[in-house]
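Ex. 9. Protein: Peptidase A1 domain-containing protein.
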Amino acid sequence: MAYTMQYFLFSCLLLFFISPSLAQQSFRPKALVIPVSKDTNTLQYVTRINQRTPLVPVSLVVDLGGQFLWVDCERNYVSSTYFPARCGSAVCSLARANGCGDCFSGPKPGCNNNTCGVSPDNSVTGTATSGEVAQDVVSVQSTDGSNPGQVVTVAKFIFSCGTTSLLEGLANGVMGMAGLGRTRIAFPSQFASAFSFTRKFAICLSSSNRYNGVIFFGNGPYVLLPNVDASQSLTYTPLFINPVSTASAYTAGEASAEYFIGVKSINVGDQAVQLNKTLLSINSEGVGGTKISTVNPYTILETSIFKAVTEALSDEAAARNITRVAAVSPFDVCFNSSNVLSTRLGYSVPSIELVMQNEATLWRIYGANSMVQVSSDVLCLGFVNGGSNPRTSIVIGGNQLEDNLLQFDLAESRLGFSSTLLGRQTTCSNFNFTSNA
Ligand SMILES: *[C@@H]1O[C@H](CO)[C@@H](O)[C@H](O)[C@H]1NC(C)=O
Ligand SMILES: *[C@@H]1O[C@H](CO)[C@@H](O)[C@H](O)[C@H]1NC(C)=O
Ligand SMILES: *[C@@H]1O[C@H](CO)[C@@H](O)[C@H](O)[C@H]1NC(C)=O
Ligand SMILES: *[C@@H]1O[C@H](CO)[C@@H](O)[C@H](O)[C@H]1NC(C)=O
Ligand SMILES: *[C@@H]1O[C@H](CO)[C@@H](O)[C@H](O)[C@H]1NC(C)=O
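Predicted structure tokens for Peptidase A1 domain-containing protein:
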């Protein structure tokens, strides 16, 4: 009952704030699409949206578990439609803003009196500042699932102002981070509210440095050339909420905005690996469990899990006459590739399977996602050792997500995953970005 009431209030607030944007638009999109490229220097995934008035393109590092959009408001923020959120306003409560303040060097974007603030987080470096909550125009392309279509606009998209120094460690040319996490003001919820579609989104990261991957907001189809609807081949597993925030700065009692799944065991080459199962669940302090991250380029395993998996893999590889060679940082386990066949699913090495809620629910990681080619004759397992007391035991990183479709369904609290699309003769760089508007 209490929940329903709260939800009702939230919905009212959302409608109230978003109605100006709806009023201007007769066209209501079913889904939206944004491109994602991979930055070669940092291995970060970068997207681009348009923001402000007049609109400017804004490049952002994609942070799957990020709480909201934050951009650098210190440098070159010019907009006639920038609205700071006044203390005590509904926008402040939607943003779960923590505080209310004045700013003496303004007024300008990021520095106004009587505004509420949140903590924009550079999750790559683990640095957070405090930043004004604000609203401005955001515009992206709609999609029918096959091509981008008409451009649509959210007139008062809620975000936070970061500083120029908070950009340190992020890819060249980016102006902030795009949070896709499970908060009311992250992209998935704001877009879903603005256009009244279900709270679902999907990411499909490209392994290519040249061709874009794609993020969809809203329901499928998610069509990749040659006419493969990747939304049709998903396996589902529940999403879990970590009760303790994993952000760089947070207030007590805040839950994590990141996406956790229930990995129950790990197989290497069809054999279960012995693991300390305690590490696989989230305890009351928010420690343990498995999350999915786009800001970590490679999967990170707690040290005992790492050892168990890499030993099993090395044994299997040795049985196939694949020779281990010296480690190449940041990896520990590398092989001479001269004895390794290439297949449609990447290098032919034993697959690594993440076993979810039951034995039939497997996320299979084949060579294309498990191995990284570091030189002409050396391949390394693209997993790194996370040490003995990490906050989260398993962090599934970017290399393991590429050319997989992942659909996050916030309403049903479940993840749909495809395993590699290479087996279906397509990749995440096969969305047709030619507009048919
Ligand atoms: C904020 O208010 C103070 C007075 O309380 C004033 O000196 C200052 O100029 C104001 N700053 C802005 C950004 O309006
Ligand atoms: C398993 O992990 C938990 C949590 O880190 C630890 O307390 C426990 O001692 C471990 N058990 C074994 C058998 O290593
Ligand atoms: C591995 O190499 C040994 C010796 O060269 C050979 O006898 C064996 O058949 C090879 N095994 C496989 C699986 O290729
Ligand atoms: C890999 O194996 C080939 C063929 O046996 C050999 O020529 C090459 O030097 C090896 N490379 C490394 C890095 O060990
Ligand atoms: C991509 O979409 C455009 C616009 O609908 C279409 O003309 C073109 O043939 C498509 N490309 C491919 C490779 O199907």
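Check your answer against this statement. Residues 1-24 have pLDDT under 50 and may be disordered.
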